[in-house]
């Protein structure tokens, strides 16, 4: 019985190889272009909200400022509130990180200073205030915003205390939720109610009061 002959693979034709490479390049550039357009929409939304307030932001205005078609915006978001929340959450993730110096005093001072600046003096902070104002008039939006923002922010706010408890710097039975409220609550009160400034001296006093309680 004769040995079967193995078929040698057919080399791709130059035209076929060029077409495959060009298709891959187009897909890659298409993904890059899509992400650039999405980022342009989010940045335009931030800018318009800061300039015009919540009522002045429209899907048409967002598209025009971003330099994309209105249909492009609707492809990713159904309403302007969807865009606004995504823009805010992206800013939050990029600008508000929890430091880890290995020391509770250093961590809390750095984090509360950062949070105070974010809420009271940054561009995303102005977006946050506009979104909170909208929650007072739109219960459906309020529920969605709290679900998407508050859970993650509460986790972020508690992190310095949880890390310190694991390091043995705080009691393991510490009521982390209650202590977190006492640390960050005054910042939100000043931002949303009294409009008083939030400087480092103010946030440092909150940390000092917490450390005294722990002693």
Commentary on this structure:
The chain has about 220 residues and is mainly α. It contains nine helices and no strands. It has helices spanning about 15-50, 60-65, 70-75, 80-95, 105-120, 125-135, 140-165, 175-195, 200-215. α5 (about 105-120) packs antiparallel against α9. The longest helix has about 40 residues, at about 15-50. The radius of gyration is 25 Å and the shape is elongated. It starts with 13 loop residues before the first helix and ends with a helix.
Write a compact overview of the structure shown.
This protein has 215 residues and is an all-alpha fold. The protein has helices at 14-52, 59-66, 70-76, 80-95, 104-121, 123-135, 139-167, 176-194, 200-214.
From the alpha carbons, calculate the radius of gyration and give it in angstroms: 25 Å
Give the H and E element order.
HHHHHHHHH
* Overall residue-averaged pLDDT value: 85
- Global geometry: elongated
Q: Count the DSSP helices.
A: 9
Largest β-sheet summary: none
Distance between the termini: 91 Å
Number of strands: 0
